[in-house]
Model the fold of this input.
Amino acid sequence: MESASRERRPAAVSMSDVARLAGVSLKTVSRVVNDEPHVSISVRDVVRVAIEELGHQPNGSARALASKRTRRIGMIAASTALSGPSAILDGVEKAVRQQGYSLAIVRTQPDEGYDIQHAIAQLISRGSTA
Done:
């Protein structure tokens, strides 16, 4: 029996839920979410309204599995303690996010033996494009 003090996490809204509300096929929802062609503007609008109404958020893990792409970019930074490198990093992160990607950052610490090869290995293990 589940503890009363433990909060239940609401179930994620699936694309099937969106399809059911919009009265379209799952493939049509997929085409709209992935901005693929062959969907009329009126159907796109109906699907987008259903997505917004239900609060559907695409599952990044599922998308990565299906497309074999993570939409994550890896960046290796030598130092971000100073305001100049930090401002550059902020700008890169903003540009990446505007394009629908996320940014994975690994900071190297050469004085501690943390080299580029280790940083690249870390990014690869995170599923990032280095």
